[in-house]
Structure formats: C-alpha cells, structure tokens
Amino acid sequence: MADTDEMIHEDALPGHESRLEPKPEWQPRYPGSGRLAGKVAIVTGADSGIGRAVAALYAREGADIAIVYLLEDDDAAETKRIVESEGRKAITIRGDIGEKRFSETVVAKTIEAFGRIDILVNNAGEQHPDKDIRDITEEQLRRTFQTNIFGMFFLVQAARPHLKTGAAIVNCTSVTMYQGSKELLDYSSTKGAITAFTRSLSENLVGEGIRVNAVAPGPIWTPLNPCGGATPEKLETFGESTPMGRPGQPNEVAPAFLFLACEDSSYMSGQVLHPNGGTIVNG
C-alpha cells in the first residue's frame, strides 16, 4: 500500500478544518455528567467536523479517545489537545480505514494504550459530487465504497473480540440515504449500505449485549462539503433548503452520538437518529 500522502483523491478530501472559514462549532454545549466515565472510544474521522465534536463531547463525559484520521496531522493534534483539555487521554492514529490491515492496527494501538474498547464510532467518510453518472470513475466508485462502508466492516471485525456486553457501535449514515441525492450517487449509495449494515449488525450482536445504532445528519458545516467538490454557489446556500433554513453545526450532531453510546439509550438498537434541520424522512 502506498503512503497516505501519496494517495490520489479526485477532490481535496478530506480537507483541513484549520483552513475552513467560518470555523465549524465543535464545542460541547453543556457540562459533563459522567455518562461515559471510564470508557474508551475509537472515533474515526475525529480530526475535524462531526468526529471532532464527538471526541470533544465524549471526553467531557469521561471517555478516553483513539483519534483516527487520514492525513490532517494539524487537525488531529488539535482534537487531541481538546480531549486532553477535558482531562482525558487521547492517542492519534493516522492511516486509511479502507485498508483492512490499518483497521487492525487501530484496534491494536487502542488496546495497547487503554486496554479496552467500549465504543466504536464509525464516522469517517468521503464524497465526490458528479452531475452525470458517467463521470463517476471506477477508481472513485471503489474508493468511496472502500472508505465509507468497507472501513466499517474492517473496524468492526478487528474490534469484535474486544467488545463486551454493554459496548456500543455508532455508525454515521446520512439524510441522503433517505432522500437520495442526484449529484452524490456513489456517496448516497454507501449511506444506504451503512443503514442496512447498522440494522443487520444490530440483529447479529444484540444477543451479546452489544448495541448498534446510527446517526443520519443533514447538511452540517464541516470540511467534507467545501473540500468535497461543492461549488462556491452551492456553499452560499448550503443548508438553506432545510425546514430550519440553515446548515447544522457539528456540536448539534454530537449529542446524538453521545445518546446512542451511553446508557440513556439502553433499550435502543438497530435505530437511526436524524439531526437534519427538521427534514421529515419517515425512516
């Protein structure tokens, strides 16, 4: 496998949060209450966007965090600083979750550092807008599926021996799975796969006392959109089509990930939460 610095992306993905203006709001909105005290969480895509907000909120609630990211060392270092500022421990693990061996490395390094895994947050993803299906290259199609759904399989496979009764898996799907997206054909297809994976994995693991749920964000202001090929014109009106008339912020999504990871949701598995600005999806 080539070094991740040498990997060719069709867009500027996944993008630096440190260069994004205005900055996404990741800060937890309320004091912690110990809902994840003593827990260890792996969070993919935790260097920026929703992943950073989840890592920050989990840390405030008492969890130590394995920060998994692809390329952005500066963003990952900032997330680590944020976690440590909450009095928790953090490690950063750099690489491509679409490679099975790297996913195994993520789990091995987390166990080496913390001795356990209680929560797995499969958040990392990529998107590449195309107006015509004929413009989607075979490389792009394979790459999007490799990151967005293969990586989830690989990480769950690697983590499974360490997930005990009471553990939680939280996957990130998308409103595009429910509504469709005419310019995100491959991306929305992976999100449909993630929702089916969530429901099926829940059925597979619920008897072991391991809960599996998902979050389906709407348009959230993260590096994924401006760095994922969106035009300046689209960015000017990003999120305005939602009933709330605006994009969401990462710290408006992170509480859904917290709820599904802690005992507040102890009677929920195979479900999807929808922080999407009021869009009704009936799913």
From TrEMBL:
Residues 1-26 have a biased composition (Basic and acidic residues). Residues 1-31 are annotated as: Disordered. InterPro entries: NAD(P)-bd_dom_sf, Sc_DH/Rdtase_CS, SDR_fam. It comes from the Bacteria. Coiled coil: none annotated. Gene3D superfamilies: NAD(P)-binding Rossmann-like Domain (3.40.50.720). One of its GO terms (molecular function) is oxidoreductase activity, acting on CH-OH group of donors. Pfam families: adh_short_C2. Signal peptide: none annotated. Keywords: Oxidoreductase. Belongs to the short-chain dehydrogenases/reductases (SDR) family. This is Short-chain dehydrogenase. It comes from Sphingomonas sanxanigenens DSM 19645 = NX02.
